[in-house]
Design the sequence.
């Protein structure tokens, strides 16, 4: 029976196709000149260039971290290309009609039609292809509500004051090795601003696609929710199937001002590599949000892709009564490795955080939860609840949890629960005896295990995430 | 309906079924009794195709289907249902969702149009009431945190929804109080039909007071050693299995 379970989780990566698009791509290598060229190609103002250069110098002095429970050969940063954009994007198409049909077809194929009339109603999309944003939909409708949703490269020009005020404030340049690198070479990503007291009229989402070979993707997202505003944002990611590893090092910063609420969901499905660990994306991501008084930030992530995932979406609970949440499903199979979790930094009084982490390991994969809950002396009556569940499929995989708690306030309460379970032969047989085939059985059991996290996703995406797991677990039964 | 000939099967190289013969005609109820470790549950698993149970000889056919040639899920869709002695939990998967998937799989296999969610909900509520479980059990995870008796009733609810042609109930009465026992028995009786057959594995006569069997068999050491009508169960209750030749009561109960 265990063989049956193993077989049921092997399947093909469906987003692995390559689009045949002519690109302008930098030669591999990284030095100050590359940073200057990226800035120049984006026509950036001087302050932005200086900011990048400062970060680049910081990065040069830093060491790549090695504390994660991950095993991979040293990355050669000189063998990566730091910029690639479809040629057709050089003269900035003004509307969808001017966008290269091959680009649109790529997104279509991924199930993300970019023509507004064909899209999921109520979801605006920013589509980022390699290093540039291809199109952002529903912008007019959002502008009516005063909401800004545009590529960050455009925000640098159009809203320099907002960008200057918030960029690099939640994740400082020197925060960590990958964040510093991102600051120097980031190419595109989304910028969101929700004005005071505004409830964003639709879901916002960014869809990241890596297409070019040997290029890194360094996107940068900044979301500012002004006082009393509300926004729900989703990102999705895929990449072609290639034998080489590719680096993805993103930074996401969230700012929730007083009484604001940001819900940030991720469905990450980068190419995971083959079952022998060949190829796949190295996903090193820094995501952090800051909550002011009474604000709330909720991270929900469904991580099924990437050869390596290194990612800890975090909340700085600065304001009194602010709330941080982290809901995570991380599925690893084949030779995938994930080291993911969160940091909840409690500074304000009565701050509250909830962490629900569901790790599913199959094949020879390794899946680690790493979480830090920090209760500062100022965090009177703060509370954290952490629940960390691991599900093992087969007996060659690994699940690990590394919960760290640091409390300097006696009135703060930290609770931690952890479980490890297996997809058992008994469960499989019950399902089959009721007529379900083994693939359906595994995916149902796994979906059940993830239920608490899926219910946090926006409705349209909960269905998508469920399907993604289903596809992830699909395969021929021997 | 079901024809088992000289069935021999082993688990982990240990021979458990040692040449078992049994014929069940449509509409019949056969009770199987016998000491612990005799192979009663094994018979259910072998017939339903559980991995790890290796058939070394003999045959088993359900209607025109050669059971031993089919995957477990195919046997289920062909109408074979096993109510488990120890039902397992599937956390987070609601009973309703689970049973809809099961019923869908059955209907799909028969080439029928699937029930809508609303139609199915109606059927599920009815079945839930019939086994006397509160409707909230439809929303709860499969067997998740259910008491022993609730699990057994949940099995019967699944049987009611799947409408199998051969039902194997493996000690569905064990650990039940008299009210729950009646619920299980009534569930079974409501499904008695000239086309549907039952194998009822039990240790107790009291279940057979409610579900009247057409035949009673004694399974011992992997074989059917005695068969009779309903009165055999009463005899067994009075005399135990000590009369079984070479049978060591102490060892069996350990
Ligand atoms: N998975 C298994 N591995 C090893 N032995 C088993 C296994 N399943 C059943 N057996 C053995 O097979 C024999 C019959 O068991 P079972 O069919 O459960 O008996 P019954 O249901 O009649 O009490 C017992 O000796 C039991 O220990
Ligand atoms: Mg038994």
Sequence:
């Amino acid at each position: 029976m265990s063989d049956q379970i193993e077989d049921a989780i092997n399947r093909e990566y469906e987003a692995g196709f390559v689009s045949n698009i002519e690109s302008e791509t930098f030669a591999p290598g990284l030095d100050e000149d590359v940073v200057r060229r990226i800035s120049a190609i984006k026509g950036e103002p001087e302050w932005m260039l200086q900011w990048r250069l400062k970060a680049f110098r910081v990065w040069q002095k830093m060491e790549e971290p090695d504390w994660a429970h991950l095993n991979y050969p040293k990355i050669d940063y000189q063998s990566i290309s730091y910029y690639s954009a479809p040629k057709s994007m050089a003269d900035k198409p003004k509307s969808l009609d001017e966008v290269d049909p091959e680009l649109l077809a790529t997104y279509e194929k991924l199930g993300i039609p970019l023509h507004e009339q064909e899209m999921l109603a109520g979801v605006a999309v920013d589509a980022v292809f390699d290093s540039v944003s291809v199109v952002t939909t529903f912008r007019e409708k959002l502008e009516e509500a005063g909401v800004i949703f545009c590529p960050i490269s455009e925000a640098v020009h159009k809203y320099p004051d907002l960008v200057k005020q918030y960029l690099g404030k939640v994740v400082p340049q020197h925060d960590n090795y990958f964040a510093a690198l991102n600051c120097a070479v980031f190419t595109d990503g989304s910028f969101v601003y929700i004005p005071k007291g505004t409830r964003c009229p639709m879901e916002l989402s960014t869809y990241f696609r890596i297409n070019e070979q040997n290029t890194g993707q360094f996107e940068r997202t900044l979301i500012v929710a002004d006082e009393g505003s509300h926004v729900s944002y989703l990102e999705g990611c895929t990449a072609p199937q290639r034998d080489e590893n590719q680096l993805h090092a993103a930074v996401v910063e969230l700012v929730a001002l007083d009484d604001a609420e940001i819900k940030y969901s991720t469905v990450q499905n980068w190419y995971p590599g083959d079952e022998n660990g060949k190829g796949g994306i190295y996903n090193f991501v820094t995501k952090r949000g800051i909550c002011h008084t009474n604000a709330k930030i909720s991270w929900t992530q469904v991580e099924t892709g990437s050869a390596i995932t290194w990612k800890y979406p975090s909340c700085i609970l600065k304001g009194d009564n602010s709330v941080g949440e982290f809901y995570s499903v991380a599925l690893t199979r084949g030779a995938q490795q994930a080291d993911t979790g969160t940091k909840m930094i409690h500074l304000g009084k009565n701050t509250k955080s909830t962490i629900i982490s569901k790790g599913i390991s199959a094949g020879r994969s390794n899946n680690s939860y790493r979480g830090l809950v920090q209760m500062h002396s100022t965090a009177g009556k703060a509370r954290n609840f952490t629940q960390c569940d691991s599900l093992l499929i087969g007996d060659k995989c690994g699940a690990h949890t590394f919960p760290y708690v640091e409390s300097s306030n006696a009135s703060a309460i930290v609770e931690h629960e952890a479980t490890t379970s297996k997809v058992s032969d008994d469960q499989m047989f019950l399902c089959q005896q009721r007529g379900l085939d083994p693939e359906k059985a595994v995916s149902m059991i796994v979906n059940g295990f993830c239920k608490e996290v899926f219910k946090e996703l926006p409705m349209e995406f909960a269905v998508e995430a469920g399907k993604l797991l289903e596809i992830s677990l699909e395969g021929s039964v021997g | 309906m079901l024809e088992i000939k000289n069935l021999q099967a082993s688990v982990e190289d240990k021979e458990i079924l040692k040449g078992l013969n049994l014929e069940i005609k449509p509409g019949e109820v056969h009770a199987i009794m016998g000491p612990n470790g005799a192979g009663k549950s094994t018979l259910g698993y072998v017939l339903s195709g559980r991995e790890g149970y290796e058939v070394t000889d003999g045959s088993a056919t359900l209607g025109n289907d050669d059971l031993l040639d089919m995957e477990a899920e195919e046997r289920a869709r062909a109408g074979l249902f096993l109510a488990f002695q120890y039902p397992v939990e599937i956390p987070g998967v609601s009973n309703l969702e689970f049973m809809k998937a099961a019923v869908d799989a059955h209907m799909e296999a028969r080439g029928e149009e699937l029930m809508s969610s609303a139609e199915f909900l109606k059927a599920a509520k009815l079945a839930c009431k019939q086994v006397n479980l509160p409707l909230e059990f439809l929303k709860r995870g499969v067997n998740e945190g259910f008491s022993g008796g609730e699990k057994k009733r949940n099995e019967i609810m699944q049987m009611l929804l799947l409408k199998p042609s051969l039902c194997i109930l493996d000690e569905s009465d064990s650990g039940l109080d008299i009210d729950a026992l009646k619920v299980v028995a009534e569930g079974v009786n409501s499904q008695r039909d000239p086309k549907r057959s039952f194998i009822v594995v039990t240790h107790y006569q009291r279940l057979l007071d409610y579900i009247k069997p057409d035949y009673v068999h004694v399974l011992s050491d992997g074989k059917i050693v005695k068969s009779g009508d309903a009165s055999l169960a009463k005899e067994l209750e009075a005399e135990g299995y000590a009369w079984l030749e070479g049978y060591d009561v102490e060892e069996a109960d350990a």
